[in-house]
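User: Can you help me understand a structure? I only have the sequence.
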Amino acid sequence: MLDTVMKDYVDGNVVNSQKRKKEFKILQETLLLQVAGNNYNPHAQEQSGANSRPRSGSNALLGSLMVFATFLTLCNAQCYVIPAEKIPGNTSSECKDLDGVKHPLNSKWKTKTCEMCSCKEDGIHCCSIITTPVGYDTTKCWKTFNKETCSYTVVEQKDPGKTCPVSQWIK
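Assistant: Let's start by predicting it. Here is the structure, written out as tokens:
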């Protein structure tokens, strides 16, 4: 549903980080619901009494998944990996990106969509380098995006030559 409602790119060719965050949150909640559903036993109370506790194995699994989900939420959700093509007997010294461009192993580059990518043995790792201003007076100021520098500037609406103070940025 998000795929059809929200655009993949905003401001021309900038990755829509809001869409990526919402997709990640949906996947995270789906995982937690699947784990809860797998551990649910409607007959557990009947079999072992009203005051019994769940098995320690399921507690450990659920606890581990909760820690994992929390850790992923705190991490930068604007990164992704393009796995390397594994061909038996072939040890490649380069990576091929989604546009078909080959990059040497251990190299780094900036994409036209404001991502920093690196070629590693397991594939291409890319993360957005855009920081978005959120702590500013939206009634007096607006943000403008510079595609060349992959950065926002916050300026006054009445006088775009004057910058506005920004107290918080998010990545």
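Now, to help you interpret it: The first strand starts at residue 9 and ends at 10. Residues 69 and 75 are 10 Å apart (CA to CA). Let me know which part you'd like to focus on.
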